Amino acid sequence: MPSIVPTGGILGADVEGLDLAQPLADADFALLLQALGQHGVLRIPRQRIGARALRDFSLRFGPIQTGVADRFRDPEVPEVGILSNIRRDGAPIGLADAGQDWHTDMTYTATRGFVNVLHAVEVPMRDGRPLGDTLFANMHAAYDDLPAEVQQRLDGMTATHDFNIFWERMRTRPGSSRPPLTAAQRAARPPAVHPVFLRHPITGRRVLYCNPGYAERINELDAAESARILEFLFAHQLQPKYQHAHRWSVGDVLIWDHLGTLHNAIPDYGPDEHRLMLRCQVMAERIFDPAFQQLWLKAA
User: Fold this and answer.
1) How confident is the model at residue 119 (pLDDT cuts 50, 70, 90)?
2) Keyword annotations for this protein (predicted)?
């Protein structure tokens, strides 16, 4: 049975005693899910796995998203994306993921994202220190600390989230290798609407499910009031007291909960300081299914 070692901070725990190159027992998977709800970010260190093993592990959480930036996927395992600043023959081998500011993946789709599973293959170093930390913010705590009148006023309200606005913001930044979305890609990612407050399927508690990367409008408010409230929510949820920094090591497999956290990859490394990550983006189709929840609850 693996052991869960919390960081002692607002988020995060290490998971010891797992080899992800081997099939995961149901009881171990149930423990991971419970720990993910409680800690938001789980690090499984010292893993030596390839793209197939990463895919097979990630599929335990649900279906894996594909379709955007297909040229930056493993040629033999297309469910696995490549995030990297490495170039070969003058062309990028992966999608640059750092410097995106605070966001939550997949809020721009009707089916929400559930977890990101990221495996560190190369980590940039300088003066003996790893670069490219990933920051996280706790949206359980952010909701709990909202003034009661804000919780009551926004209860039941929804926000529109738009992928293309975020993509264009990132694409036009200096050094970005992102191409514009094609018309087909834009049509495949129309704006999506989600509750501002979401009940987390693992913890049963409310989270603030509204992020500065994709949330464009609170639909039940006029434009000016929506802008004012969003500005307040974004400032509130990014207070340092809600934040946790993950410092990468080669071999880390990091799992984080999109429903209960925001994240931000720090671009503090240069083009010659190589970073290479393999990623599976898992959608929240299975975790909201009561039958699936019973499977892991019974296994716990």
Assistant:
1) very high
2) Dioxygenase, Iron, Metal-binding, Oxidoreductase
Specify the pTM: 0.92
C-alpha separations of 297 from 83, 135, 205, 294 in Å: 34, 30, 17, 5
Cβ atoms of 226 and 61 closer than 8 Å: no
CA–CA distance, 110 with 103 (Å, rounded to integer): 16
Residue-range definition of the domain harbouring residue 96? 3-299
Core vs surface per residue 78-114: b (16+ CB within 10 A) or e: ebbbbbbbeeeeeebebbbbbebebbbbbbbbeebbb
| Chain Cα centroid distance, residue 296 | 22
* pLDDT tens readout for residues 24-79: 998 899 999 999 999 999 999 999 999 999 999 999 999 998 865 667 888 899 99
CB count within 10 Å of CB 155 equals: 11
Task: Taking the CA atoms of 255, 1, 251 and 77 in sequence, report the sign of the dihedral they define.
Answer: negative
Q: Which helix (H) or strand (E) holds 254?
A: strand 253-257
Length of the chain counted residue by residue: 300
CATH of the domain at 139: 3.60.130.10
**Pairwise CA distance, residues 173 & 169, whole Å:** 7
Write the DSSP string, 183-235. HHHHHHS--EEEESEEE-TTT--EEE---TTTEEEETTS-HHHHHHHHHHHHH
In terms of Cα–Cα distance, which of 5, 1, 113, 130 is closest to 63? 113
Q: Which residues of 135-148 are buried (b: 16+ CB within 10 A; e: fewer)?
A: bbbbbbbbbeebee
Alpha carbon distance 198, 205 (integer Å): 8
The answer to whether the Cα torsion of 32, 38, 42, 44 is positive or negative is: negative
